[in-house]
Design goal:
- The complex is a heterodimer of chains A (165) and B (149).
- Chain A is of the alpha+beta class.
- Helices cover 38% and strands 32% of the residues of chain A.
- In chain A, helix 1 packs across helix 3.
- Chain B is α/β, with parallel strands linked by helices and 149 residues long.
- Chain B contains 5 helices and 7 strands.
- In chain B, the strands form 2 sheets. Chain B has a 5-stranded parallel sheet with strand order 3-2-4-5-6, with helices on both faces.
- Chain B is globular and about 35 Å long.
- The chains are: A alpha+beta (165), B alpha/beta (149).
Chain lengths: 165, 149
């Protein structure tokens, strides 16, 4: 696990949540997970492929998701799945977009796949060689979980080394 | 969202007209709300670059707010095509992805400015004022148009 690949996502999540929800956020405990991740309800999963690879999961329970959707929309929203999905997708896009901007400007080349939103509590398995960092943010709307698993793609190492030289 | 001094077109004192291009319905609604607080009108919306081109020709907006990553045709290609057909088009890129390469590409294709999501209303307001320039738009005197917000 390379913290230089993880930190941009933590910073972006903190900044986007505080800005979008217009209130203070508090970063909770960090932990490392090797056995996969079990989402809390609504989750947006984003895959990254290229010189650096991995996936990021933005996750929250349905009550928090509805509150977040309401905060972003500026009016109260019930747990209507489509609106909540749309909101979660946009929140994930903003978070990932801000993080990958930093990584891209550092010279990494990769592709970010569109978020896939799931409403499930089924285990998301990690890959054999990658552990994930799990973190949560206490926000005015409730607890938001972020699970990040990133690594260098060894097949791109020569290009990466050339960039760093 | 706080109201802003309404921006109007200098030539006819009418509200500035916007075309919003974003594949996210949520993002379009959010931008439309901001435009309302700026005293503007939403002339049209599009969810991809292809639709943006036809909507631009149909609505002839004063400002286009254009996302970059979209299905079918991405924002940067749409900018190039719109500017080729309408050299005076004023397009502001609005994207969560702010790579230097992306920003440069958009500006080279004819976009006038770039703002990264999440968009702060006060930042977007100042960018729109800048892009429209004082020749095209003026902030109406305080009190004018406040009923809109």
């Amino acid at each position: 696990m390379k913290m230089q690949l993880i930190q941009p996502f933590i910073s972006a999540a903190d900044s986007i949540l505080a800005h979008a929800l217009d209130g203070p956020t508090k970063i909770g405990d960090l932990s490392m997970e090797e056995d996969g991740y079990r989402p809390k309800g609504f989750s947006a999963q984003i895959a990254i492929r290229g010189e650096i690879e991995g996936r990021v999961i933005l996750d929250m329970d349905s009550v928090t998701a509805a509150r977040v959707a309401g905060a972003l929309a500026g009016y109260e929203i019930d747990e209507s799945e489509q609106v909540v999905r749309e909101t979660l997708c946009e929140l994930a896009n903003m978070m990932i977009g801000n993080a990958v901007t930093l990584l891209n400007d550092r010279g990494y080349q990769f592709k970010v796949h569109p978020p896939e939103v799931h409403r499930s509590e089924e285990l998301v398995r990690g890959t054999a060689d990658t552990e994930a960092l799990a973190i949560y943010f206490d926000t005015p709307c409730g607890r938001v979980f972020v699970n990040i698993s990133m690594h260098y793609n060894v097949s791109h190492r020569p290009e990466r080394d050339a960039i760093l030289r | 969202m706080k109201p802003f001094t309404p921006l109007t077109r200098k030539q006819d004192s009418q509200p500035v007209r916007y075309l919003i291009v974003d594949d996210s319905v949520f993002a379009r609604k959010s931008l439309a709300k901001m435009i309302d607080t700026f005293g503007g009108d939403v002339a049209g919306e599009a969810g991809d670059g292809c639709t943006a081109i036809t909507e631009y020709a149909r609505t002839k907006p004063d400002i286009v707010l254009m996302d970059i990553t979209m299905p079918q045709m991405e924002g940067i290609e749409a900018v190039e095509r719109i500017v080729r057909q309408h050299p005076d088009a004023r397009i502001v890129m609005v994207s969560s992805v702010g790579y230097q390469d992306n920003i440069l590409a958009a500006l080279q294709k004819g976009a006038r400015h770039f703002v990264q999501k999440p968009v702060k209303p006060e930042v977007l307001y100042e960018i729109i004022r800048y892009v429209l320039n004082d020749d095209e738009a003026v902030a109406a005197p305080a009190g004018v148009g406040e009923a809109r917000s």
